[in-house]
Amino acid sequence: MQRFHDLLSEGVRRFLADKGVTDVRPIIQYTRPDFEGDLTVVVFPLAKALRQRPDAVGAVLGEWLVQTVPAVERYEVVKGFVNISFSAEAWRRFLLEALPAAGFFPRAERAERIVIEYSSPNTNKPQHLGHIRNNLLGWSVAAILQRYGHEVYKVNLINDRGIHIAQSMVAWMQFGGGATPESTGKKGDHFVGDYYVRFAKAHKQQQAEGGSEETPIMQAARAVLRRWEAGDLHIRPVWLKMNSWVLDGFAETYGRMGVDFDKTYFESETYLVGKQHVMEGLRQGLFHRKEDGSIWADLTAEGLDQKLLLRSDGTTVYITQDIGTAALRYFDFQMDRSIYVVGDEQQYHFKVLKALLQKMGAPYADAVHHLSYGMVDLPTGKMKSREGTVVDADELMDEMVAQARRLSEELGKVDALSAEERERLYHIIGMGALKYHILRNDPQRRILFDPAESIDFFGVTGPFIQYAHARIHSILRKASGAARPETAAGYAPDGAEVALIRQLYRLYDVFANAVENLSPAPLAQYAYQLAHQFNAYYHDHPVLKAESEPVLHFRLLLLERVAEALRESMGLLGIEMPERM
Predict the structure, then answer these.
(1) What is the CATH number that goes with domain 3-86?
(2) How big, in percent rounded to 5, are the helix, strand and coil portions of the chain?
(3) N or C: which end of the chain has fewer CB within 10 A?
(4) Using one digit for the tens of pLDDT, what is the confidence trace for 150-179?
(5) Predicted confidence (pLDDT) at residue 388 exceeds the cutoff of 60
């Protein structure tokens, strides 16, 4: 894939050598979309070395490249830049020779060991739309880094202790009457989540009656938390039972979503390790104890604040378990990078975590990287877990599949499929719509999710891209055989075909951008552009009724590569690409 870059770089070096300049390295970049050209030479360093005006050097360079480098067809000088266009013959050779051998994606020069943490749900409620963005983003970034050649480990940290979990436990003990997911026919995480909402309602009612935050039910939850940390033999079995219900529910949700993990950590285990590290830091004089017995870190020298690490009663806070998890993770993986996929409201938290680990001299402190993302809103407003107004992940997936079923049947495109094949297809389309709508946006951007908009077969959606892929495979099936490159070699592509090959070439750079920015968005946007460009091309270029064998096989080969690029780019988003729709 570096062939054009290398070809152009060598041409510029020869141009400079003819003028006695050997110590300037050419800067080659992709031409901006709003200008004509394939690659651009940055002229400013050359002009400085030659002591001439950039536009004058650019004109001489461009003309020299056209005359001496066969692949260069024309050039355009724009101030200090020379935009180079390659010939149709060069693009034909790229499609037939370079692309099959090299593939679409660059590889890392040095493989890193990377741990990426995502999901991190609480065991007091089911996952919701916010978790969907977290899960899909984390899984996709892991897939991108792994495809780049890094050694990637996907981990989950289950938040299975704390006051919120105690609240669900108290509500079930007070109001449950021995009910279970089995006895009620409810999925385990939904079952427990109902009691979290039940606790909030009881607390609010008691507040209204007593006028105090410390209501009887809240006091009961705090007592349960203290008894849990003390290892109470009556509380621990309830906690284990309720957690098992939720974890079973999570496993089902992850399976439907298509995300997985290499290792799962539990806060109920990691907080003890964190506590040990805090006490060791106190012994070394890194932290200090206040009069009430609480332990703090002074991070003002780092431009942060005073940070509580252990409460006066000895109980831990979130940062304590994160210290412990970081230590366990390094013991397990000795990672070069530790990426935390967590919402942007936790940016300060991760600055504190990194500063604390650096203060403690942890060898993995600099590996900490917070991949933050914006929240997901709905047309109806912000979600609130305690009030039970969240968009449940399972219900949303059900809705997406149902919409895929309704739209597909309205279009009448599935009549030839069996009932089993249809249901499988509805799942692929529905989940493709959901994943694409979430991942096509830059992670930093706060997004509004509209289920109906996300599944439009004619919009900027996953199903639009899936349909283009299926359409190509329909053509290839009718062709009754693979394209023959040796026959295709006799055809010279026209302008639209060159433009489509150029788009295939762009995937190399798009993927590198996704790796650098830890973002699936460039790949999602690229896939739509390619699908849209293919549709326009196919409208004007018959394939099966091509005028000659060389044209037929060239176009079949081009379509095979387009389908492959769509499948590769969408696959890194976790989106399946059906061959029939």
Answers:
(1) 3.30.1360.70
(2) 60, 10, 30
(3) N
(4) 999 999 999 999 899 999 999 999 999 999
(5) no
Tens-digit pLDDT profile for residues 79-121: 999 999 999 999 998 898 877 766 788 899 999 999 999 999 9
Residues 65/11, Cβ–Cβ less than 8 Å: yes
Tokens 């992850």 correspond to: 254
Please give the distance of CA 513 from its chain centroid, rounded to a whole number. Answer: 13
pLDDT band of 241, cuts 50, 70, 90: very high
Closest CA to 121 of 283, 300, 259: 259
In the structure encoding, which two tokens stand for residue 369, read together?
């990287």
- CATH number for the segment(s) 393-571: 1.10.730.10
Distances (CA, A) of 38 to 42, 74, 555: 13, 10, 22
Q: How many residues does the chain have?
A: 581
Nearest alpha-carbon partner for 33 in 464, 526, 566: 526
Mind giving me the DSSP string for 102-134?
A: H-S----SSPPEEEEE----BTTS--BHHHHHH
pLDDT above 70 (res 386): no
CA distance 524 to 465: 10
CA distance 185 to 177: 15
Q: What is the mean pLDDT of residues 128-138?
A: 95
Residue 241 and residue 574: Cα distance in Å, rounded?
33
In the predicted structure, residue 385 carries a pLDDT above the cut 50: no
Cβ count near 281 (within 10 Å): 20
Question: Does 543 score more than 90 pLDDT?
Answer: yes
Nearest to 369, CA basis, from 118, 197, 126: 118
Superfamily for domain range 119-267+334-377:
HUPs (3.40.50.620)
Tell me, what's the pLDDT at 485? 87
Nearest to 155 by CA among 142, 144, 173, 136: 142
Helix 521-540 vs helix 549-571: angle between axes, to the nearest 10 degrees?
A: 160
Q: Supply the pLDDT for residue 154.
A: 98
Closest CA to 188 of 270, 121, 120: 121
DSSP 8-state code for residue 13: H
- Give the strand pairing for 295-298 and 81-86: unpaired
Sheet holding 306-310, edge to edge: 288-289, 295-298, 306-310
Tokens of 136: 């899909």
Lowest mean pLDDT among 240-249, 352-361, 413-422, 538-547: 413-422
For the CA atoms of the chain, what is the radius of gyration? 29
Per-residue pLDDT, averaged over 341-345, amounts to 95
Contact 422, 374 (CB under 8 A): no
Q: Which residues lie below 8 Å from residue 441, measured CB to CB, with a gap of 6+?
A: 447, 521
The mean pLDDT value for 452-477 works out to 90
CB 106 within 8 A of CB 512: yes
Domain residue limits, the chain: 3-86, 119-267+334-377, 393-571
Cα gap 27→295, rounded to integer Å: 54
Distances (CA, A) of 92 to 5, 377, 490, 500: 17, 46, 10, 11
How confident is the prediction for the chain on average, in pLDDT?
A: 92
- The amino acid sitting at 18 is D
